[in-house]
Amino acid sequence: MTDLTDRRKLRMGMVGGGQGAFIGEVHRIAAAMDGWIELVCGAFSSSADRSKASGRSLLLPDDRVYGSYQEMIESESRLPEGERMDFISIVTPNNMHFGPAMMALEHGFHVVLEKPMAFNLEEARQLQQKVTETGCSLLLTHTYVGYPMVKEARHLVREGKLGAIRKIYVEYPQGWLSKLSEVTGNKQAAWRTDPQQSGQSGCMGDIGTHALHLAEYISGLRATRLCASLQTFVAGRKLDDDGSVLLQFDNGTSGVLMASQVAAGEENALKIRIYGENGGIEWNQQEPNTLLVKWLEQPTQVYRASAAYLSEEARAFCRTPAGHPEGYLEAFANLYRGLALSLQPWRNEGKAGPYDFPGVEDGVRGMAFLDCLLKSNESNDKWTDFTV
Ligand code: NAD
């Protein structure tokens, strides 16, 4: 593992995210936002030629653009400490997470990994074991917990303002898979609906894992039992495109989780409501700078990003002056900010700071959630235990 005590930028390598890819560019923008991280190398595509073309368009030197992730990790680990990458961001389809993540950890590189963490639970457990053995960091990009108003919601719950939590509703409807887009040239649809590339679940793996993570993050609770019903509405599709889940949490809180990619007309309408004895919170991803805080027998309050009355936890993640919208890219950048601060604590001038980011345990939990959903869906029992 490279020494990171020097005051310098962190060096990032990327696997995936070539020309025409979706999330790779978002990662590059997010990582660069604070000026603390620079992209130094990449293996951007499964085709060496396309990887080279992508690297050239990113103005990387030819000798740092690799034909495969194996070549990249081996070559980078042979470079002197002052040059080689410090961490690798893996933004490939789900079946291509484990290989590069495991090899990077084995060579002492920290890892940023897209969700769901792996292709199956067994792979996720192996990555967890390797993170423990190596002491390397792993950031799992559950984007939505990077939003300041999500941090504020968690703060209100933690402070006990809402009282004991009783009810969680989390819903994640999208409409973009309402047709059989996987056969009409939509690359992102094609791999997400292919069990060989996506894994055992479609919609639930893609966005249901985000919804569970968000609910557990804000509430601080862990789901312990669930009852799931998964559907595949679009004829010819091989994986679920919709699902509904009843949840029970460890303090007796009851929950409802819904995720759908056939909610025709919806964009990315992730929304969460959490209610305690005294009141509740409501946050909607498409209006991310607003948090509604509801009180029993009192008017609802409207909390806004960057306001002086927010907790330090939330303000540490606000980037723009109050009233100036910030959003998805900044939330993603906050995850990278958390990683950078944990690897280079001198950036925070010795202050502990409220910086956190999702990690390998969250990834294992996400994969165990998918196993449990499928088990529950096939079972006639009302409840299935959710253990990790
Ligand atoms: P995509 O199909 O748009 O891009 C995948 C990229 O990986 C392509 O450039 C492809 O060429 C490359 N690739 C495939 N195999 C490779 C290999 N062996 N070596 C190097 N590159 C390879 O996919 P996407 O929509 O960007 O999704 C990628 C990952 O990001 C998925 O795991 C997905 O679940 C996740 N994702 C997360 C979020 C989020 O909100 N955090 C949003 C979108 C996607």
Structure description:
With 388 residues, the protein is an alpha/beta fold. It has two domains: 10-143, Rossmann fold (3-Layer(aba) Sandwich), CATH 3.40.50; 148-320 and 360-377, Dihydrodipicolinate Reductase, domain 2. The chain is 34% helix and 22% strand. The chain has helices spanning 23-32, 48-57, 69-78, 98-106, 121-134, 148-158, 187-192, 195-198, 203-219, 312-315, 328-343, 360-378; strands spanning 10-16, 37-43, 87-91, 110-113, 138-140, 165-173, 223-231, 242-249, 254-260, 271-276, 279-284, 290-295, 298-304, 384-385. A nine-stranded mixed sheet has the order 13-12-11-10-6-9-8-7-14. The radius of gyration is 21 Å and the shape is globular. The two termini are 29 Å apart. The model has no long low-confidence stretch (mean pLDDT 96). Nicotinamide-adenine-dinucleotide binds at residues 15-18, 21-24, 43-46, 69, 91-94, 96, 114-115, 141, 143, 187-188, 191, 206.
Task: List key phrases describing it.
388 residues, Rossmann fold, alpha/beta, Dihydrodipicolinate Reductase, domain 2, 9-stranded mixed β-sheet, 12 helices, 2 domains
Shape: globular
Number of distinct beta strands: 14
Bound molecules: nicotinamide-adenine-dinucleotide
The quaternary organization reads as single chain
Strand content: 15-25%
Q: What is the CATH class name of the largest domain?
A: Alpha Beta
N-to-C CA distance: 29 Å
Q: What proportion of the residues is helical, as a percent range?
A: 25-40%
* Architecture (CATH level 2) name of the largest domain: 2-Layer Sandwich
Largest sheet: 9 strands, mixed
Helices, by number, come to: 12
Query: What name does the CATH topology of the largest domain carry?
Result: Dihydrodipicolinate Reductase, domain 2
| Tally of distinct domains | 2
CATH superfamily of the largest domain: Dihydrodipicolinate Reductase, domain 2
The structural class is alpha/beta
Mean pLDDT: 96
Strand order of the largest sheet: 13-12-11-10-6-9-8-7-14
Written as H for each helix and E for each strand, in order along the chain, the element string is EHEHHEHEHEHEHHHEEEEEEEHHHE
Q: Taking Cα atoms only, what radius of gyration do you get, to the nearest Å?
A: 21 Å
> Which stretches are poorly predicted, pLDDT < 50 over at least 5 residues?
none
